[in-house]
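Deliverable D5.2: sample structural annotation.
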Amino acid sequence: MINLKKVKNPMPEQDPIVRAGNFEEVAEGYTAQMAINEAMRCLKCRKKPCTKGCPVMVRIPEFVAKVAEGDFEAAYQIISDTSALPRICGRVCPQENQCEGFCVQGLHGEPVAIGRLERFVSDWHAAREEEMEKAALEAEDDEFAEFAEEEVIESNGRKVAVVGAGPAGLTCAGDLAAKGYEVTVFEALHKPGGVLAYGIPEFRLPKDIVAAEVRKLEKRGVTFVNNAVIGRAETVDELFEDGFEAVFVGTGAGLPSFMNIPGENLLGVCSANEYLTRINLMKGYLPEYDTPVQKAKNIAVVGGGNVAMDAARCAKRMGAENVYIVYRRSMDEIPARAEEIHHAIEEGIDFQLLKNPVAVLGDENGYVTGLECVEMELGEPDASGRRRPVVKEGSNFVLDVDCVIMAIGTKLNKLILETTENLEANDRGGIGTDAGAATNREGVFAGGDAVTGAATVILAMGAGKTAAASIDEYLGE
């Protein structure tokens, strides 16, 4: 069973009954004293195992030690040396499977809450920076002027194009800009952020935080071009003709998957991608926006990952009376973060475990009226190591729903592969790269979900960081 216990120093959060009716951030963050108390639990292990679990190699013991001392600014500087998006990582990274999964404290109890400490430190720095910038604008002298200006990095005259403004692209752009490269980021949607903007709900990741990270990059000289679909408006080869000396592709894996069961074309069936994009990026949760969004009384969300939890919790907040998570395995195998499952249960989401859809039912007008499912039981482990679900014959039943949201994963977008001459794919269907993120095409690099398929924000950031180092080495020759 997934451990849903809270850490010794839990983070304050909205009451479940209250938060299920709003899109405000659920977790309210540590106070300074809470952060110090939690940091003091660190055992200062000599071999620093927690660092091994971080894809961007944050010097975790060092920043935690500074938090324990109450030196939050020093802690932030340590984190930001390697992490481009600490306020985001502190909120959405699966720390329990990464840094905290290696924490020695976790062997006999709860690991040190590294993610929550990262969130506190980066939020503290952002608040201080905002105060200083305000003081600089209001002051009659230049006492605070240094805080109002971003450090100007002299250009090295080399131009790099980044395709996709998601976690991989933003990280790559930030690292290259810090080295003096003139970076232009091309984003297909009307706002930068990628999955940070369209996929993760406001109550988990406030969009003003994403916007603030983008502004920081702009201050460093990064240029963002939105509504630019590379592969359609312009090809990768044409970017080179425009004077870019290297191109990083971080386009993600945003094509939705469906089950191909009867009734999936009925009105009231949609992908979680579409549903979350309409709510998050197109502001469908705000009454002043006239965004068309599925609003139903009874909703089934098919899947058990973080996207399924996000869709289900959004549906509850959008006014659904009953929201079901339909997942074909048990709670032991469910892939979503323990915290997201815990919050979903608190908010009244009904988990229909060991159930699997076989058909969507509809009325004579083509609207959804139900989801026919079968009960499952777990057999022998499959290739993933999880026990394979097997159908219980004759166990069919119907969930009375008027909307079905499919959250069963995403597929790779092949546009760049199809429009870039001689660019090779890997065995997963993504863009093929070596360990340094270089493709078979000279000057073209790729990383994140566009290479691996759907993964985590922090893994995409790690790929962007690797690519930036490789591009710097390539152009420095």
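Annotation notes: Residues 114-138 form the longest helix (25 residues). The mean pLDDT is 92.
The annotation will be released with the project's public dataset once the embargo ends.
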